[in-house]
Design goal:
By secondary structure, the protein is α/β, with parallel strands linked by helices. The chain has two domains: 277 residues, FAD/NAD(P)-binding domain (3-Layer(bba) Sandwich), CATH 3.50.50; 159 residues, Cholesterol Oxidase, domain 2 (2-Layer Sandwich). The protein is built from twelve helices and 24 strands. The strands form seven sheets. It has a six-stranded antiparallel β-sheet with strand order 7-15-18-19-14-22, with helices on one face. Strands 9-3-2-13-24 form a five-stranded parallel β-sheet. Helix 1 runs parallel beside helix 12, helix 4 crosses helix 12 and helix 5 crosses helix 10. The longest helix has 20 residues.
């Protein structure tokens, strides 16, 4: 057994952990970062799906809900999901803070707190408008078709600097244009004296007499097999392992209470694809730059509702996952790969799922699509199909196991009727799990309070998407980074 020590251990190096580690280290705190995934520098980003899914993704991209109906995509590498995301920078709307305050008694963090932290974060990650020449034809046609109909639509802000338009964003940016935690916050932390241990899986936090006293981890080899146990003495722990694995750490440590692992939101996403007569080359430029949020709602009474449509695409192996059918039926479409476009239907759900550890310590993700989510997904697919025909598409299909397409907008409703509306038949993904260690200033409603401290144990904190009471935004990177900054500021105010 290897024995180490640090004043603060940070578990996870994604949007939350990287920000916390950098801020504490820059204040002179002795910080040790633990990351289960590998440290893969951008010089090793090969732009090959199989290679990068193995190196950068949780379970090689195969993590899913217990029933197999939704793929839950997360990074598992130094930098976490910031390395594999689409770099969209979207804030939490002010109305959502009002919802959290009135429904979850979350009064200790205000919208003003968030905006101040978010503005600082945005400067560090180079956030700004996407340049016009970086918007590819798929996204442009989708947005312009919506705007011609008078619908609310636009283009994202992102955190790319010097984008070359390779289109391989979700396989890691080989050109260091995407300002992920791997090339921003992590180097900041290391330069300030923090230490980093990749390939270390945390088994539990040690609590003695109601106070954190250490962490037990397992060092892994390149094949993710255990090598040795590592015991780390520390005074404080920040758990920032994401909304799927943070609750596992807390549950296996016996802390956090009855709400740990509950209230999971997945923001499930379905896809609509289109074929154009000309070459749109959706695999070049920024894959996800445009959105249509005409039907998305947010208010104090209900939080997020409705749905939004966003352009998307990927390399051939990834794009194949959106195509209808499988096997030989997919080949004719791939032969016209440069004529294809795709969009995602993002449906903000209510907290209803749960995460718990299996006997082997892996996450069991229990989640069922509600009738309301099915209804909004159905409506979103209809509207996306209409937009694609308005944009000039010759053929449209939904991303399901049904190998059937349509060539005219009058056929949309018939295709919707023929679509098998069962979760396992819809090719759905989730990239924004949230809520499994939710924050509330009411002792009976949440795992952490607005200082990010876990109730019932001293010196244990959570700073990632698991603290959000409900879906926070269409993309969670900026909200998590801003909340992590607030968490670090509040810790430093007490303990620095």
């Amino acid at each position: 057994m290897t024995e180490l020590s640090a004043r603060v251990v940070v578990i996870g190096t994604g949007s939350g952990g990287a920000v916390v580690a950098a801020m504490l280290a820059q204040a002179g705190v002795d910080v040790l970062m633990l990351e289960e995934g590998r440290h893969v520098p951008s010089s090793q980003f090969t732009q090959r799906d199989a290679d990068m899914y193995d190196k950068l993704f949780r379970d090689r991209g195969l993590q899913s809900t217990a029933d197999g109906s939704i793929s839950v995509l997360q990074g598992s590498c130094v930098g976490g999901s910031t390395v594999i995301n689409q770099a969209d920078v979207t804030p939490i709307p002010e109305e959502l803070f009002a919802h959290w305050s009135s429904h979850y008694e979350l009064s200790g963090i205000s919208y003003r707190d968030f905006r101040r932290a978010a503005e600082t974060v945005e400067r560090r990650i180079g956030a700004g408008p996407i340049a016009d020449h970086e918007i590819n034809a798929n996204n442009r046609r989708l947005v312009e078709a919506a705007q011609r109909r008078g619908l609310r639509a636009g283009f994202f802000r992102d955190n790319r600097v010097g984008c070359v338009g390779s289109g391989y964003c979700h396989l890691g940016c080989s050109y260091d244009a995407k300002q992920s935690a791997l090339i921003t916050w992590i180097p900041d932390a290391l330069r300030a004296g923090a230490r980093l241990l990749p390939q270390h899986r945390v088994e539990r936090v040690i609590v003695r007499d109601g106070r954190v006293s250490g962490v037990i981890a397992t060092r892994l080899d390149a094949a993710r097999q255990p090598v040795e146990t590592v015991s780390i003495r520390c005074d404080h722990v920040f758990v920032c392992a994401g909304a799927i694995h943070t609750p596992l750490v807390l549950q296996q440590s016996g802390v956090g209470g009855k709400h740990v692992g509950q209230h999971l939101s997945l923001q499930p996403q379905g896809a609509v694809m289109a074929r154009f007569s000309d070459k749109v080359r959706s695999f070049r430029g920024i894959p996800q730059s445009g959105y249509v949020d005409e039907w998305e709602t947010v208010d104090e009474a209900h939080g997020f509702g409705g749905f939004r449509i966003e352009g998307i695409f990927g390399p051939p192996a990834t794009a194949t996952g959106f195509l209808p059918g499988f096997g030989k039926s997919v080949r004719p479409l791939l032969e016209r790969y440069d004529h294809l476009g795709a969009s995602l239907i993002l449906v903000p759900d209510q907290p209803s799922g749960a995460v718990s550890p299996t006997a082997a310590g892996r996450p069991d993700i229990a989640y069922r699509l509600s009738p309301d989510v099915f209804r909004r997904l159905h409506d979103g697919m209809r509207e996306a199909a209409r937009l694609y025909f308005d944009a000039g598409a010759e053929e449209v299909w939904f991303s399901t196991l049904l190998s059937r397409s349509i060539t005219h907008p009058d056929q949309i409703d018939d295709l919707l009727v023929r679509t098998p509306w069962r979760a396992i038949s819809l090719r759905m993904i989730s990239a924004h799990p949230q809520g499994t260690a939710r924050m509330s200033d009411h002792p009976g409603q949440g795992v952490v309070d607005s200082t990010f401290a876990v109730r019932g144990v001293r010196n244990l904190y959570v700073a990632d998407a698991s603290v959000f009471p409900t879906t926070s935004s269409s993309h969670t990177m900026l909200p998590v980074m801003a909340f992590a900054r607030i968490a670090a500021e509040r810790w430093l105010a007490r303990f620095a």
